[in-house]
Design goal:
With 319 residues, the chain is α/β, with parallel strands linked by helices. 42% of the residues lie in helices and 13% in strands. It has one domain: TIM Barrel (Alpha-Beta Barrel). The protein has 12 helices and 8 strands. Strands 1-2-3-4-5-6-7-8 form an 8-stranded parallel barrel, surrounded by 8 helices. It is globular.
């Protein structure tokens, strides 16, 4: 396993592709296009898993030159049991074979040996520790829930030292995030809880700042909360942001631009349903369901170009 800092590898890959887009692979079987629907609707888990694999591989082939990183949502693979896990491992291997970085979207959070088990599978591989270590998924990074406290991050941080990355949940994109994450915590500046989560991530990743000036421990900040995103960016210039909520959840290029630093770097913008199932949009109706991968590619190009333009305008405005 490489020991090059994840943040350096990610920033270099984004620069090489000139694209801050992250492809979220959320294989919702009920939304699959007609060419795969007969497999996706099967009650046989092996058959349904084969549909997911074909779907994911076609997505990777269609978009691998347009994105630097992909984010499979682990839950959609888990729902199929053992066949789903096998396919997840194949999809991660296929993404790596195409030169892409992989973020496992698992949102794990626990303590001690349980957290270590999560980390060792999702981030580990057979070169991660002792020669006899069990092989893991080998994702380049993963999402984690640190609301159990600082000690819940410690087992994951061992893998950051080995070149992996973490994205800590801070201000998530769902409307209900306000129920807890916006609560103002007395003392320490009377900040909202999400600001404490961001500060925790910054502290945890302080030793992992790479040659490009970014930490390998970042935060998840929803595009649906641009005001909070802007404040967090100003407070934590070295934190990389993973920004969900683009497209299907209602955010657009103007809302995500504030997540980037004054150089126009330091963030990736995820789209899952908006890219995976772009064929369902009226904008791509001319292609039809048989050309669903082409619709995803067309949507990805439009998303990339719109975000790059918004970043450029933001950089100019800040200079």
């Amino acid at each position: 396993m490489t020991r090059t800092a994840f943040a350096d590898r990610l920033d270099a890959a984004i620069e090489a592709k000139a694209s801050p887009v992250c492809l979220g692979i959320d294989p919702q079987l009920e939304l699959f296009p007609a060419p795969l629907a007969h497999l996706a609707s099967s009650t046989d888990r092996e058959v349904a898993a084969s549909a997911i694999e074909r779907f994911a591989l076609e997505l990777l082939d269609a978009l691998c030159d347009l994105v630097a990183v992909v984010k499979p949502q682990v839950a959609f693979f888990e729902r199929l049991g053992p066949p789903g896990w096998v396919v997840l491992e194949r999809v991660v291997a296929a993404a790596h074979a195409r030169g892409l970085l992989v973020i496992a979207d698992a949102k794990r959070g626990d303590i001690a040996s349980t957290a270590a088990a999560y980390a060792d599978y999702l981030l580990g591989d057979d070169a991660a520790a002792a020669p006899a270590a069990l092989r893991g998924l080998g994702a380049d990074a993963m999402t984690v829930n640190a609301y159990l406290g600082a000690d819940s991050l410690e087992p994951f941080l061992r893998h950051v030292d080995r070149g992996r990355g973490l994205y800590v949940l801070a201000k998530t994109s769902n409307p209900g995030s306000r129920d807890l994450q916006d609560l103002v915590i007395a003392g320490a500046g009377a900040r909202p809880l999400y600001a404490h989560a961001a500060a925790l991530a910054a502290s945890a990743g302080a030793a992992s700042i790479g040659e490009r000036g970014l930490s390998s421990v970042g935060i998840v900040v929803g595009a649906t909360h641009p005001e909070q995103s802007s404040a967090l960016r100003a407070a934590h210039p070295t934190l990389p942001f993973l920004v969900p909520g683009y497209g299907a959840q209602g955010a657009g290029p103007a809302e995500v631009a504030c997540a980037f630093d004054p150089r126009g770097r330091g963030a990736i913008v995820n789209s899952s349903r908006g890219l995976c199932f772009a064929y369902r949009s009226p904008r791509h109706r001319d292609l039809g369901p048989d050309r669903w991968a082409e619709a995803a590619r067309r949507e990805c190009i439009a998303m990339r170009d719109a975000i790059r333009a918004a970043i450029g305008q933001s950089v100019v405005a800040r200079s």
